[in-house]
Design brief:
Its main location: membrane. This protein has 169 residues and is mainly alpha-helical. The chain contains 7 helices and no strands.
């Protein structure tokens, strides 16, 4: 019996396999490969887009909500759903992600080269872009919700805009 196996037995593990399944219980269910794909994807998202898991999930929820409310609103308007309209959505998302990814990449590059002022500017731009993308998609979702509820497309956004502007008048 080797030293590691003896050590495991002191913790009531009867084999290396039992210990490994305790460390990664997904292995008992054949789910480890799928989780590793998700884990590596999170890493790519963080390194490419500069978003942690929560930020990326929030952005994903916004995108998916816009997509589904857009489809629902099109049905309410009795429009046929076509691949060209879905392609428009995909193009928007791709452009948003490119802007977010490029600003983050430039931020990291400038910081790496001790160009702190430029790094700060691109970090600021990155945060501003992510925030603005969230706002713009929320407006689109609100337009879709208004349509779904049988109102003019701009009904909800106009109310919010008027209320917001009233704080500054």
């Amino acid at each position: 019996m080797n030293h590691f196996t003896r050590l495991l037995k002191t913790f009531d593990y009867h084999s290396v396999t039992e210990f490994m399944l305790s460390m990664a219980p997904s292995g008992k269910y054949g789910f480890t490969s799928q989780l590793l794909i998700i884990t590596f994807s999170w890493t790519v998202v963080d390194k490419v887009f500069g978003l942690d898991q929560g930020g990326f999930v929030a952005l994903l929820v916004i995108f998916v909500t816009e997509l589904f409310t857009g489809i629902w609103a099109a049905r309410v308007r009795q429009e046929t759903i076509s691949s060209i309209k879905l392609s428009r959505f995909s193009l928007k998302v791709a452009c948003y992600l490119v802007m977010i990814g490029v600003s983050y990449s430039l931020y990291r590059s400038f910081i790496k080269h001790d160009e702190n002022a430029a790094g700060w500017a691109f970090n600021w731009l990155h945060i501003a872009l992510v925030t603005q993308v969230g706002f713009e998609n929320t407006i689109s979702i609100l337009e879709n919700v208004a349509t779904i509820n049988g109102k003019e497309k701009d009904a909800i956004v106009t109310k919010i805009t008027n209320k917001f502007n009233s704080f500054f008048n």
